[in-house]
Design brief:
Order of helices and strands: EEEHHHEHHHEHHHHHH
Distance between the termini: 62 Å
Number of strands: 5
Number of helices: 12
Largest sheet: 3 strands, mixed
Low-confidence stretches: 1-5
Helix content: over 70%
Strand order of the largest sheet: 4-3-5
Radius of gyration: 22 Å
Shape: globular
Strand content: under 5%
Length: 325
């Protein structure tokens, strides 16, 4: 399975026509996992589009908080769309080859929207921080315009970082193996296949991971520390419970996103060597499940979305009955 190579004479860089994604080749009963992935993707698409539609169609939900929720829903939709269909294609068509440029595109899209997921959770933490710690100034501090600016800045910075990280991959030569042991065109498994020095790419992966995951996570922790200090200063138990109850759905999302990643990388650091198959399976689950669960949590736990979702269901029932008559 040695592909033809394209050599750029001006620099001597060797790029293969593409790579082979082999992360799931040795899994027993892998068809069960791909059926699960198909279900996860269907739920992801349906509920995220539902959340986006409900918020877009109701002007009373055009607030900073729900702008942040729409931002998260769009990110979740694209994040799972860039990996799950390609994984299902590998299973159904038995074709695990991905062209070189498409590999870089998938890599860029995945890490861009994975990074945006982290920043979107930090933006939602900021919304809770302002609402609980500065209740009298919420409307002046956290406006739709300021929220749109934060969302735009995170998108712009994240796109720039990931375009740079992807662009430096083109400096690598791939002289021997083109078999990527992952569930998609993953950054580190790809640059480790290079036959020239990849220290820049390794540094970029480490530094940007710390910046993109560690930065927002630290902000979220500090936000909730500030929120707890504010809540404990409240005079009545009812006001404390009411304030904390508005944070429940966000805390669930943070736990779903960060805990699996922390556990996977902590086990890898402490144990030293993880079974490669288990690592691929764990990372794919940690990547695919949060975008599926996030809109369900917001649909069930957020009163405004839940009320309008039920109203939409009732409206469709009435329309169907009229059509039948």
């Amino acid at each position: 399975m040695t592909p033809l190579r394209t050599v750029f004479n001006s620099s001597g860089i060797v790029h293969p026509p593409g790579f082979y994604i082999i992360g799931f080749e040795t899994f027993p009963n892998i068809h069960i996992y791909f059926i699960f992935l198909a279900f996860v993707y269907a739920v992801t698409v349906f509920f995220n589009i539902l959340v986006i539609y409900i918020i877009a169609a109701n002007h009373c939900l055009h607030t900073p908080k729900f702008l942040a929720v729409v931002n998260l829903a769009v990110i979740d939709l694209i994040l799972n769309s860039c990996t799950i269909p390609s994984m299902i294609k590998i299973f159904l068509l038995k074709d695990n080859f991905i062209p070189f440029n498409l590999c870089l595109l998938q890599m860029n899209v995945y890490y861009t929207f994975g990074s945006l997921e982290s920043y979107a959770l930090a933006i939602l933490a900021y919304d809770r921080l302002v609402a609980i710690c500065f209740p009298l100034r919420t409307n002046s501090i956290n406006t739709a315009r300021s929220m749109a600016c934060m969302v735009s800045i995170t998108w712009g910075c994240t796109l720039a970082i990931n375009i740079f990280a992807t662009q430096i991959m083109t400096r690598l030569s791939f002289c021997s193996s083109v078999r990527v042991f992952s569930y998609f065109c993953d950054y580190a498994p790809v640059f480790r296949l290079a036959c020239n020095d990849y220290s820049l790419q390794r540094f970029a992966a480490s530094f940007f991971s710390l910046l993109i995951l560690g930065g927002p996570f630290t902000f979220i922790l500090l936000s909730y520390l500030t929120i707890l200090l504010t809540v404990f200063k409240m005079k009545t138990l009812d006001s404390r419970v009411k304030a904390l109850s508005t944070c429940v759905e966000h805390l669930i999302l943070v736990a779903i996103f960060y805990i699996p990643l922390i556990v996977i990388f902590s086990v890898g650091f402490l144990v030293g060597v993880i079974n490669p198959d288990q690592r691929v399976l764990s990372l794919s689950l940690a990547s695919c499940v949060p975008p599926c669960v996030n809109p369900i949590v917001y649909s069930l736990k957020t009163k405004e979305i839940k009320i309008r979702a039920l109203a939409l269901v009732r409206k469709n029932k009435v329309t169907n009955k009229r059509n039948l008559k």
